[in-house]
Amino acid sequence: MGKRVALVLAGCGVFDGSEIHEASATLVHLSRGGAEVKIFAPNIEQRDVVNHLKGSPAEEKRNVLVESARLARGNIQDLAELEASEFDAVIFPGGFGVAKNLCSWAVDGKNCTVNEHVSSTLQAFHSAKKPIGLCCISPVLAAKVFPGCEVTVGQDKNVDGRFPDAETASAIAELGCKHICKNVNESHVDKANKIVTTCAFMCKAPLHEIFDGIGTMVQEVLKLA
């Protein structure tokens, strides 16, 4: 029987929701790994809405659960209904929606608050010693909720201009966590906390390298499950 994995989304679209390629890559690798997946998102209003064509704010309101349903092909549940006891692992793709909707990192950085259902979900899986997978900006959720954990968001310096958000590593360290430098095609496993992270689009890299890096994260999560 395949592992039961919960996938938590933050909307639909890189600038105000879940990064679509990361969500899709995660689902492909989970499918290849024989996992049984159920998708969730918080039933809350988005912090903002971005016109992805113009890269500018749009004067409208959208709901995170409704927008996430686009990625889930309609097969999605309210995050408030997620029961950790029904799953072997949980994975959070990235995208600015994580930093805007699942927590307030986009505005408050290391002083951010985490959505109550996101925090309780992370704590429930952690308490049950079940693995947590995070990619792109999502590792900041673990850094905020689990002081002392180990995560990666890529490199802590903007190596060759490929890691423009390298300062995120410093903020993670300021939270009392250990940042592990990794390349885009790698992931890091915090064995003590069963947290698996990979940098994905935190690195300017070809899409297939990001896809492969997410694959290593998914594989490690399934091994731990």
TrEMBL record:
Which InterPro entries does the protein's record reference? Class_I_gatase-like
Origin superkingdom: Eukaryota
Transmembrane region positions? Answer: none
> Which SUPFAM superfamilies does this chain map to?
Class I glutamine amidotransferase-like (SSF52317)
Looking up PANTHER family in the UniProt record yields: ES1 PROTEIN HOMOLOG, MITOCHONDRIAL, GLUTAMINE AMIDOTRANSFERASE LIKE CLASS 1 DOMAIN CONTAINING 3A-LIKE1-RELATED
The protein in question is named GAL3A protein
Please tell me the species this chain comes from.
Steatornis caripensis
